[in-house]
Amino acid sequence: MEDWLAQAIVEGSPDAIVFADREGTIRAWNAAAERMFGYAASEAVGRSLDIIIPENLRARHWTGYQEVMRTGVTRYGTELLSVPALRKDGTRLSLEFGVALVRGPDGDLAGIVATLRDVTERWRRDKELRERLARLEKRTAS
Length: 142
Hints:
Helix content is 40%, strand content 27%. It has 142 residues and is an alpha+beta fold.
């Protein structure tokens, strides 16, 4: 694939595309990531993924990330993962994302790319429906 075409695809994607190197440093951040998280690419590139990971989930994230970098294997290459994340202003959002391991020309693992979608509104609607159903079930059980 030609470089210009790959760049156009990444920048035109409606989903956020974020690439982080083996250490978890952000190396690529598309326009959709800017809109989703509130950080311009110039603010995000070169920083740790911690800028979008809630503090209470960081230890778990990094344990898994380091294991993937060590083994070169992830189960999330074919599964969607649902997680909370942080915007620049500190508000939370709910994400679904998939990942792919990225290897350099030499075959060595260079890092991981994630394609992320904001599902916050769907998550809120589903939560409201679950709560409403629970209230109705409780009422009918009485």
